[in-house]
Write a structure and sequence with these properties.
Chain B: The chain crosses the membrane at residues 7-23, 29-48, 55-72, 78-99, 106-123, 155-178, 199-223, 243-267, 279-303. The complex is a heterodimer. By secondary structure, chain A is an alpha/beta fold. Chain A has helices spanning 43-50, 73-79, 96-108, 120-132, 148-161, 178-195, 206-212, 230-233, 237-244; strands at 3-14, 17-28, 32-36, 58-63, 66-67, 81-84, 166-170, 198-202, 215-220, 223-228. Chain A has one domain: P-loop containing nucleotide triphosphate hydrolases (Rossmann fold). Chain B has helices at 3-23, 25-49, 58-71, 78-100, 105-125, 127-130, 150-177, 179-196, 201-227, 237-250, 255-275, 280-294, 298-312, and strands at residues 136-137, 142-143, 146-147, 229-230. Chain B has a two-stranded antiparallel ribbon. The chains are: A alpha/beta, B mainly alpha. Chains A and B meet through helix 2 and helix 3 of A and helix 7 and helix 8 of B.
């Protein structure tokens, strides 16, 4: 496996708070990398720097050998880096199908003024995408009338519609009802693996991390405190105490 | 309402207008103005889709009307004056649009208002160029080189307005269904998402803004051709407000609503001004209030509702 994304010595401080204090991270092609860590550790900041929405004060981020720093967010999207959001960013006056079709149209660059959005090609692709995510039953519902799990999946489906190589997800399962969570995660993992997408995701639920991550990076005060396979990281007593918040001897359970 | 029914309603509406103009000659002028305003309101509709209200679009109407007034003494062909004035208006829309695109909502609305009032003041104060509030009288334009007078000239302008209205109604209908038009609603609900999909929101809005300036320009040209007298009042802020008023009265979501609203508005204005000179603005205000409170879909929404009820019964 080759390196897809390589961050070197990223530094960014908000006043006195160091959100990135020398981040070094290589993301391998087709892996699922989970980012865990306490609030304020700089997890979302890392996503924002990679997508061009925050500019680090030092360091470099290379994607397929190409320097991303200094590029506009829209240019980065076109390289094949998509992201989904902690709070789903949907077009709430459109149906789920139209939301997906908008993403397809955006990828095609076909903001043609005189052919309908739901032209056969776009509609078929959007329906196929929704089908893979199990969202077809909700296709004709307006995006503001969905439950959180469906909203999250729609949000991620729109990112996948861009056919990205690298997908950055900010807490894909937060806000999803506990009963739906594993189903959502399984669906997500299956679709992304089938599409050959490399995924980097911030996650607080250690069950989810253990289930789908290939590697886990532990963030702490703007640095990577630990990095390795989930079996090793999630059982590390220091990580358990500092990040997951369980004391030695306690049985691990799903974190909130 | 499905597409076929909408086309049918459009053709029917056009036929009614022609009949009215034929039956009551003095209505020709009123209906020509109404069609011109309907075309302008289509532009307001586009911006409303994006959640933006412009209180300054009368500026583009006036830019086109004054362009006609300045060019007409040198070149009187109406079918050349129209595209010239429309392009000048659209070019102004592009230039100003590049600037106002940075703003949204109240700032967008107020900036358009401010710019239009600056333009109004210029028209009023630059007496040597614009003749101030006296305005400029136009020579009678020719149609395809033919000198027309009286009723035949009025019919020609009316027909031009009707054809333009039909063309723009179709164009706007198609535009709104296309990704570029659908993305307008995306600006209202989640502009950040557009950006994250690699689509610049400002470009989406700018395209609609330029199209709206073009349509305002065409409407302004019709006004200039039919009244043959342009004054700074065309650019005054109440003229801009009137367009927003008609958009809401007719139904902010529909192409046909723009024309329905414009015709009802103009007819009400003419009859009310004749019979209730002191109260007609009060009447219009009350109607707007009632529409906002009880029929947010506007007149077109009411018509749709009646149709649906009859189908159900």
């Amino acid at each position: 496996m080759s390196v897809l994304l390589s961050a070197q010595d990223l530094r960014l401080a908000f006043g006195g708070v160091k959100a990135a204090d020398g981040i070094n991270l290589d993301v391998m092609e087709r892996e699922f990398l989970a980012i865990i860590g306490p609030n304020g550790a700089g997890k979302t900041t890392f996503i924002n720097m990679t997508t061009g929405h925050l500019t680090p004060q030092g360091g470099s981020i290379r994607y397929e050998g190409k320097e991303l720093l200094g590029m506009k967010p829209r240019a980065i999207v076109r390289l094949g880096i998509a992201r989904s959001f902690q709070l789903p960013q949907l077009f709430t006056e459109h149906t789920v199908l139209e939301n997906a079709a908008m993403a397809v149209a955006a990828r095609e660059g076909a903001f043609s003024p005189f052919r309908p959005l739901l032209r056969p090609a776009f509609r078929e692709e959007a329906e196929d995408l929704l089908n893979r995510f199990g969202l077809l039953p909700a296709a004709d519902r307006r995006a503001d009338a969905l439950n959180e799990g469906t909203r999250k999946l729609t949000d991620i489906a729109m990112a996948v519609a861009m056919k990205p190589k690298l997908l950055l997800m900010d807490e894909p399962t937060s806000g999803v009802a506990a009963a739906d969570k594993m189903a959502v995660v399984e669906t997500l993992a299956r679709v992304l693996r089938d599409a050959g997408v490399t995924a980097v995701f911030v996650e607080h639920d250690m069950d989810v991390v253990g289930r789908i991550a290939d590697r886990v990076a532990v963030w702490g005060q703007g640095r990577i405190a630990a990095l390795g396979p989930p079996g090793q990281i999630l059982n590390d007593p220091v990580v358990q105490r500092e990040v997951i918040g369980i004391r030695a001897g306690e049985v691990p359970h799903a974190a909130a | 309402m499905n597409a076929r029914l909408e086309i049918l309603a459009g053709i029917l509406g056009a036929a009614v207008l022609v009949l009215l103009a034929y039956a009551a000659p003095w209505l020709r002028f009123v209906l020509t103005i109404a069609l011109a305003k309907g075309i302008m309101v289509l532009g307001i509709l586009l911006l409303l889709r994006a959640g933006q209200v412009s209180f300054g679009h009368a500026m583009y109407v006036a830019i086109a009307a004054y362009s006609v007034a300045f060019i007409a003494p040198h070149m009187r062909e109406a079918l050349l004056l129209l595209p010239l004035a429309a392009v000048i208006s659209a070019a102004a829309g592009l230039l100003i649009g590049l600037f106002v695109m940075r703003y949204r909502e109240i700032f967008f609305g107020m900036l358009n208002l401010a710019l239009s009032m600056v333009f109004y003041s210029l028209l009023e104060k630059l007496y040597t160029v614009t003749h101030g509030t006296d305005g400029i009288r136009l020579p009678v334009p020719t149609f395809l080189g033919r000198e027309l007078a009286g009723a035949s000239y009025e019919w020609a302008v009316f027909a031009l307005a009707l054809v333009l209205a039909a063309c723009f109604a179709v164009v706007v209908r198609i535009y709104l269904a296309a990704p570029l038009g659908q993305a307008l609603a995306g600006i209202k609900t989640r502009e950040a998402r557009l950006e994250f999909m690699g689509v610049p929101g400002r470009f989406v809005l700018l395209a609609a803004y330029v199209l709206s300036a073009l349509m305002a320009g065409c409407g302004g040209t019709i006004i200039a051709l039919t009244s043959r007298h342009v004054t700074p009042a065309l650019a005054y802020w109440t003229a801009s407000g009137e367009l927003v008023f008609i958009a809401i009265l007719g139904g902010a979501g529909s192409v046909l609503g723009a024309f329905l609203g414009a015709v009802v508005y103009e007819l009400t204005r003419v009859y009310a001004a004749a019979n209730l000179a002191d109260a007609w603005q009060l009447i219009l205000g009350s109607v707007l209030l009632l529409v906002i409170l009880f029929a947010p879909g506007g007149l077109f929404g009411i018509a749709q509702g009646l149709l649906r009820r009859r189908k159900a019964a």
